[in-house]
Amino acid sequence: MNERKGKSGSGRRRHQAVLIALLGLVAAACTDDAGRRETAGPATLPVSTDSIILVRDSSIDATIPAAGTAEPFQQATLSTKLMGSITTVTVREGERVRAGQVVATIDGRDIAARRAQIDAGITAAEAVHRDAETQLARVRSLYADSAATRVQLEAAETGFARAAAAAASARAGAAELDALGSYTRIRAPFAGIVTRRFVDVGAFVAPGAPIITVEDASRLRLRVTTAPGVAGIAAGTTVPGTIEGLPVEAVVEGVVPSSGAVYVVNATVANADGRHPSGGTATLRLPGGHRTALLIPAAALIPEGDLIGVRVVGAGGSTLRWIRVGEQRGDLVEVLSGVRPGDRISVPVTSLGGQ
After folding, report:
1. How does pLDDT run across 88-130, given as a tens digit for each residue?
2. Suppose 160 and one of 76, 132, 142, 147 were both cysteines; which one would form an S-S bond, judging by CB atoms 3.0 to 4.6 Å apart?
């Protein structure tokens, strides 16, 4: 009987020893796993071997948002120097035109009548000029033979000079009329799109009255206003921006002072495909030195409706915390509020390139 009790007690002691050993192994494994999870990487580098990172301050390039409008790089409202009736309008709004294409014509009968008068005046002036030239040659010959006086020679030379001037004036009048006559045909100054048509056939127009507006939106000019702190931006600098919410890369043309403590920044954006509308709302993110920010992997974000959260890891496990985010920079996103430096956040391992 005592022998059986001894064997039974010995068995229980062995069983307890095995349990203690197993618990020790589990505790060691848990301790090792906890040690791995608490090893945090920097906020700017994804962690491939763990799902927990440490939130830290990072130095980033600061930007200054500036709002404005996107305007066509070239825009012209066509008019004329003449007064008359519109005889043809060959384009409609939204139609693309070529440089030099005739888009409208004006009644030019008055120009034609004046051209006939000027041509007659040129003919008469040139006849007088030829006669004066002949007379001058005859008087010079007589003067050489002492058959004409010095006074007669000088009179012939003066007559010839006056006749030459009259002929030149008549030809200049013809050139001026030709230039004026060109205003009977309204031409597109550059390739673009007709954005507005002000007249129809039969309308009477006066000098300077608008007829057609053409714009070239293959390039856009962004004009934004900002504080004086960006006055040192060099021409040719590329800055990010948006047009009607779509991202663009703009090239700075220059910075000029405006009224008060305000500067105007002009920048151009390529728009050959017409993706961006002219006249749309535009923003530029202008360089403004450096600042401190909290950056976390975008993969750590947990969107739920209009809210965005992250899982913050603590001693008792992880909790969902709502945050406010700012600009995204590649795979990282700036956190404006909701977490502090030193917080540990959870990131799915698969999103970080883990297994």
Report:
1. 999 999 999 999 999 999 998 888 778 888 888 889 999 999 9
2. 132
